[in-house]
Write a structure and sequence with these properties.
CATH class of the largest domain: Alpha Beta
Strand order of the largest sheet: 1-2-3-4-5-6-7-8
Strand content: 15-25%
Distance between the termini: 35 Å
CATH topology of the largest domain: TIM Barrel
Shape: globular
Number of strands: 14
Bound molecules: 3-methyl-2-oxobutanoic acid, zinc ion
CATH architecture of the largest domain: Alpha-Beta Barrel
Helix content: 25-40%
Length: about 525
């Protein structure tokens, strides 16, 4: 058995399945490039057959990513698998990940299939996939709650058909570490051809044990692939968090005796990018990537760290990509300096026109904010008005009036398909008035399920505010993010961005459907 642990990132597939975390093609491409810089082994780019949008995203990622394997999920049927193979055509290294549920509950209630039918479908699908791509992963969905004897039959059969990775999902986050570790170990011991495949763990975090379960699957069960997401993003309580797995393996090499190829200094930039793109804020006390993960507040700790860092620090902040907030650019910085910083941050702009638009937005920001940090540049470049994304709605200008004892009032000018509209409204506060003004024209009928404001760079009121607005309409949930030094303007941008996403309807099929 090798001592290399394969890191399989599923931020763009399982992570994105989280309501409100859906991303556009350009956003996914940006994140895929960051995952490649992070040097993850496998990027699960999406579920190509679930919608045309997903197909295009997987294809675009497969076409540009060269150093990581690009993978698409596919249900265990010929149509899904053929679609995945088609999307992956341009990949330097491609993987198809096919799955079918094997627990009695899922087979009977969801699939309405007998175990024998499921076994046949699993075999047939892997056989079909293997003729299209050499690297095939098979997952028995709800595997951890499946009957051991039946699971052994299915897994032995799919290895026989050519599956090269076997992934054992704890789909509902029900496992505990000792039992999950033993489960993987038993499967590997009982299946005669188990050494012909790499074993993988895929744990959900419903009981807060996804990382512990995955590590038990590795240590006790001998798994050599972990499926995980940046910031633990994912449906319900999320997936196993990549940064925690990677740093556990690196920091406790004495115990795990394994290595990962990940460049840990890219962890914090990746965490920020995912958080800024999805609007899913990272809790301050989150391990490795939380704002307080390396902060020492108590006097005793501070004193200890000043005398010897390792008194209270088991990892170094700089090793996972925390850099002291650096003033990177200012009002006088030129286009070349700006362009170079974009390259250093791994932000790829597809045309000179896009760079010009981003530079103009940067200059406009620098006029209002003296110091521009990396986080400001990242926020600015994910703003759809400066990227190539087609905007249905865009902010032109906003003015608002609020005074103690008076009802706030806002007047907003925005574009709809390039046509200017003006609207006005009062409201409980300036943000409420501004969003009501927009809604009174657009009449989306959407329900706001989340509104949150964060400072992009900590420590001062000079920081830009980053606003996330989550809207729900006809069963769809979308997320809009807007940044500006004025949080009322940031709120209007976030609202218009969410409306644009709501407008771009999707016909996506759910992976667990
Ligand atoms: O959690 C799960 O079972 C999955 C499968 C589709 C692999 O995400
Ligand atoms: Zn999952």
């Amino acid at each position: 058995m090798t001592d290399k642990l394969i890191i399989f990132d599923t931020t763009l597939r399982d992570g994105e399945q989280s309501p409100g975390a859906s991303m556009t093609k350009d956003e996914k491409l940006r994140i895929a490039r960051q995952l490649e810089r992070l040097r993850v082994d496998v990027i699960e780019a999406g579920f190509a057959a679930s919608s045309n949008g997903d197909f295009e995203s997987v294809k675009a990622i497969a076409d540009v990513i060269k150093d990581s394997t690009v993978c698409s999920l596919a249900r265990a049927n010929d149509r899904d698998i053929a679609r995945a193979a088609e999307a992956l055509k341009g990949a330097a290294r491609a993987r198809i990940h096919t799955f079918i549920a094997t627990s009695a509950l899922h087979m009977e209630k969801k699939l309405r299939m007998t175990p024998e039918q499921v076994l046949e479908q699993a075999k047939q699908s892997v056989r079909f996939a293997r003729n299209l791509v050499g690297d095939i992963e098979f997952s028995p969905e709800d595997g951890y709650r499946s009957d051991m004897d039946f699971l052994c039959r299915v897994l032995e059969a799919v290895i026989e058909e050519g599956a090269t990775t076997l992934n054992i999902p704890d789909t509902v986050g029900y496992a505990v570490p000792e039992l999950y570790g033993n489960f993987i170990k038993t499967l590997r011991e009982r299946i005669p051809n188990s050494d012909k495949a790499i074993w993988s763990v895929h744990c959900h975090n419903d009981l807060g044990m996804a990382v512990a379960n995955s590590l038990a699957g590795v240590k006790m069960g001998g798994a050599r692939q972990v499926e995980c997401t940046i910031n633990g993003l994912g449906e319900r309580a999320g997936n196993c968090s990549l940064e925690e797995i990677v740093m556990a393996i690196k920091t406790r090499k004495d115990y795990f005796n394994l290595h990962v190829d990940v460049d840990a200094t890219q962890i914090v930039p990746a965490s920020r990018m995912v958080s800024q793109t999805t609007g899913f804020v990272v809790q301050p006390n989150k391990a490795v990537v939380g704002a307080n993960a390396f902060a020492h507040a108590s006097g005793i700790h501070q004193d200890g760290v000043l005398k010897a860092r390792n008194t209270y620090e088991i990892m170094r902040a700089e090793d996972v990509g925390w850099a002291a907030n650096k003033i990177v650019l200012g009002k006088l910085s030129g286009r070349n300096a700006f362009k170079q910083r974009l390259e250093e941050l791994g932000i790829q702009m597809d045309s000179e026109g896009e760079i010009n638009a981003a530079f103009a937005a940067f200059k406009e920001l620098a006029d209002r904010k003296s110091d521009i940090f990396d986080e400001d540049i990242l926020a600015l470049c994910s703003d759809e008005s400066v990227t190539a994304e087609k905007e249905k709605y865009g902010l032109v200008s906003l003015s608002q009036r609020s005074e103690t004892g008076e009802r706030p009032f806002a007047s907003v000018v925005f574009t709809v398909d390039g046509q200017e509209r003006r609207s006005e409204s009062d409201g409980n506060g300036p943000v409420d008035a501004s969003l009501k003004a927009i809604e009174s024209q657009v009449k989306s009928g959407a329900e706001m399920v989340l509104y949150s404001v964060n400072a992009i760079t900590s420590g001062s009121t000079e920081s830009q505010g980053e606003v996330t607005v989550r809207l729900q309409h006809s069963g769809r949930v979308v997320n809009g993010v807007g940044a500006d030094p004025d949080i009322v303007v940031a709120s209007a941008k976030a609202y218009l961005s969410a409306l644009t996403k709501l407008h771009n309807k999707s016909d996506r099929v759910a992976a667990q459907g």
